[in-house]
Amino acid sequence: MSSKADRARSEDVALPQLGLTGTLRWIWTQLTSMSTALMLLLLLAVAAVPGSLVPQRRAGPEIVDQWIEDHPFWGPVLDALQFFDVYNSVWFSAIYLLLFVSLVGCVWPRAIQHAKALRQPPARTPRNLTRLPASGVVVLEEGGPSPEEAVARAQAWLRKRRYRVEHRPEAGGASVGAERGYLREIGNILFHVSLIGVLVFMAYGGMTKYGGQKIIVEGEGFANNLVAYDSFTPGTYFSADDLQPFSLTLDSFDAVFDRESETHYGQPLDYTAVMDVREGSGGELQRQILKVNQPLDIDGVRVYLVGNGYAPVVTVRDGAGDVAFQGPVVTRVFDQNYGSQATIKVPDARPDQLGFVGFFLPSAVEDEEGAAFSADPELLNPELQLNSYYGDLGLDTGRPQNVYVLDTASLTELNSRTNENGGIVLSPGQTYELPEGKGSISFDGVRRYVGLDIHYDPGKWGVGVFAGTALLGLVISLFVRRRRVWVRARTDDDGRTRVEYALLARGEEFGLHEEHVALRAAMEKWWPIVAATETADDAAAGAAPQSTPTAPETPAGPADARSGD
Amino acid sequence: MFNPTAPVNEQLALYSDLFMLIAALVYAAAFILFTIDMATASATIRRLEADLAAQRGQVRTAPARETVGAAVGGSTAVGASASDAARPTGAAERGVDADGALVDEDMDYTGGGRRPVANVAVAVLAVGWALHAFAVVARGLAASRVPWGNLYEFMTTGALVITTVYLLFLFRKDLRFVGTFVTGIVVAMMCAATMGFPTPVGHLQPPLQTPWLVIHVSIAVLASSLFALTAAMSVLQLLQDRAEKRAAAGERSWAFLRLVPAAQGLENWSYRLNAVGFVMWTFTLIAGAIWAEAAWGRYWNWDTKEVWTFVIWVVYAAYLHARATRGWTGARAAWLSIVGFLCIVFNYTIVNTYFPGLHSYAGLPG
Q1: Between B289 and which of A74, A476, A564, B299 could a Cys-Cys bridge form, CB atoms 3.0 to 4.6 Å apart?
Q2: Would you call B289 an interface residue with chain A, using a CB distance cutoff of 8 Å?
Q3: Do the Cβ atoms of B82 and A543 come within 8 Å?
Q4: What ipTM is given for this predicted complex?
Q5: What is the spatial distance between Cα A166 and Cα A179, in angstroms, rounded to a whole number?
Q6: Residue B114 belongs to a domain
Q7: Dist. CA A455–CA A232, nearest whole Å
Q8: Domain of B237, in residue numbers
Q9: Dist. CA B231–CA B238, nearest whole Å
Q10: Is domain A121-180+481-547 in CATH 3.20.20, yes or no?
Q11: In total, how many domains does chain B have?
């Protein structure tokens, strides 16, 4: 980023003004120096790591709570240090914001400098070309081209190789200054500016986006409003009015499993959800196919298929004989064969509220010890295996409860594999009468459900575009070669034309050697040469001068002392 | 590209598994040969020096050639000296350096000198590569898809790409000196895949059935193999750096290092490759974000895999900046290049197997 020379210059300016301004300027120079940027980069890499080692709230707050509970000492300490919200933490934000400030402070002066350089002619021809490491001299035969002609020839050649050239008449001859690769610095600036663009649009997205989850059972629907979501994460400046009006219904869901392979038998191959979508409040109903990796796009809102499972349809009658619950129960899949956890809460049952907890097994099989499990993901032998409870479900206290967890602390067990009533085992169409006349439960059938993620992020296009320009800028800045060439021709004491030339790479020197060879070969083709010397010996033309990225500085004074950036 | 309904060709898959094991064994042989070449470096050096001395003698007996070249300035002599590094099969004086270096600064083949063990090692490696390539292609054909759908396939394909890249470089550049390191990495990857994470062939899970798998993962593998190569070069750079300091102090160091280019040359070349690798890694990151957007609805969510991809990106960004910062070139930059590669190894092994996250496609039981 900003070079030593820049720094030296701005410090010179700062010298007369001591006190606050001077101090601030000093801090600014420090912050925008390359080594600070480097340190901040390394710090950023280190700071990002903890987020992969300890659970993060953004991924699942309940896991974080569990972790804190399991680690009574480190839990609260790390929590206080924001280790569970690394990427929103003060320290992580501080590092990347400082990095971006440093970046702006670096790129801005460079952009101005380059804008000036773009309007300037190539650097002035150094007095003594042969002192540059990649240089050479050829002396032409008598009667050969004049110095003017030789320089013109070289100039034409350089222009053809897309150098910017300037012809300079000199005492006893002429010289040409040539420079190419201005695009390199433009690419560099484009890359860094694009990173700022990415950050800005990420922030814009963070303010305006929203996202949520919704589980829909076959035949059921969803309308895009806040109460319909199972969970919802708004952006900073989200308001409920921002929700695009649309609704969708899950017509059917189909999963295909591997039936050919012995080793991967039953592995999922394809999920297809058929959705009926209505855009706006009164639009046409449209049938659309939703698949993994193929989200629906409704008015800028994207709907993703992220999960699926079985929802057994259950009817629960209470002790009074009334239907207290009827409908599909969304179960939580816990193994590859869709063994699922079922929790049924029946707060409307009278006289006692009822609760059921257990498993839904699409292909129930018993192992030697009598424990049931699912042997296949498809409905070959669907069974509901439940324990039942009665008492107060605790739903009236107003405290939010997890719908998938039945708190049995204040409940009395009715059925369980371990008590005399045994567990409830139901196949579709069967009904079980609960003991003590508490009611009954029927397993009516099975429907499928899908888990949907719904996302709206208007900032993502900006992020994408700037990520693209960043990549473009990176490629240009790394692979375009910036170099200068000077050729000077004079009439020497013997009246012959003497051509001197030098090449200088700015930054990395790859390819300079090849360019040297090409220039030399061209000269040998053009002119009859009497004598030739080269200061560019193997070592010089090869890799040796790359010991510093700064171009070697010759006392003879290449015009540009700032060639090192 | 993806045909989940096509039956898996189990017979072909078995051949793939078999050839994968054979390839691993052949690679192990190549590794041993490269190690022998490394261990017998002092003998090689004596032989090379003898050859060079003989060549020097020839040059001395034919001084006319030099004079003519200089006086006439004929295109041959000038061309030869100016394009010294660019033309691998140069004149007899190639390989002889003023300071007595046995290898070319720019890692070109010097033409002179025999290194039979290293040459046999390269040949064995090429045989291993052919077997390996068959195994990987057969695996892909057996399942009618790209062969990188789980950790086993990712590792075996990754090892194939590393070997391919290395062999391709060997055509143009004399990189035999990193042979031990490269074959070491490849053998480790093949062993980890075939013994640690053997996975029978199968179809892709629905989330992986997208062209992004091809784009994102292939470039990631390619970038990683370049980073593997540069990490090996950076290790040698550090060793060479120390050897050069010892040599300056008049001390002797490991003979093998005389067969390795100078620290500066290693640094320049690893920078060049790392620049290419960094562009590829940037692309991997962007393609991954686009895929994540298409699959999960958010382009970046700090999933463990995303975190580590980002960490690796930042480390190599730091590396590129270090090269332009005074006091950070040389050994420090080399350390960054090594750390970057260690992060990649960590990302592909520990993160894939032990860290939960959305990228859990390792296909491992559990």
Answers
A1: B299
A2: yes
A3: no
A4: 0.81
A5: 9
A6: no
A7: 10
A8: 205-366
A9: 11
A10: no
A11: 1
Residue of A nearest to B263 (CA): A547
Q: Does B275 touch chain A (CB under 8 A)?
A: yes
Contact criterion met (CB below 8 Å) for B261 and B107: yes
Q: Token match 């320049």: residue?
A: B268
B288 burial type by CB count under 10 A (0-12 exposed, 13-18 middle, 19+ buried): buried
Dist CA A65 CA A61 (whole Å): 6
Which amino acid belongs to residue B346? F
Residue B67 within a domain: no
Neighbouring CB atoms inside 10 A of A4's CB total 14
pTM to 2 decimal places: 0.82
pLDDT in tens, chain B (366 residues): 455 566 778 888 889 999 999 999 999 999 999 999 888 877 777 777 777 777 666 554 443 333 333 333 333 333 333 333 333 333 333 333 434 556 666 677 765 556 788 889 999 999 999 999 999 999 988 888 888 888 888 889 989 999 999 999 888 888 888 888 889 989 998 998 888 888 888 778 777 888 888 899 889 989 998 999 899 899 999 998 888 888 888 887 777 787 788 888 888 888 989 999 999 999 999 999 998 888 888 898 888 888 999 999 999 999 999 887 777 888 889 999 999 999 998 888 877 777 665 555 554 443
Cα-trace Rg, chain A: 38
The residues facing A167 across adjacent strands are A176
Nearest to A475 by CA among A188, A192, A110: A188
| Rg of chain B, C-alpha, whole Å | 23
Written as one string, the DSSP assignment of A385-421 is: EEEEEEE--SGGG-----TT----TTEEEEEBTTSTT
Residue B252 lies in a domain: yes
SS3 of chain A: helix, strand, coil, percent, to 5: 35, 35, 35
**Which positions in chain B touch A538 (Cβ < 8 Å)?**
81, 84-85, 97, 105
Assigned domain for B101 exists: no
User: Residue A505 has which token pair?
Assistant: 């790479």
Q: Is the CB of A221 inside 8 Å of chain B's CB atoms?
A: no
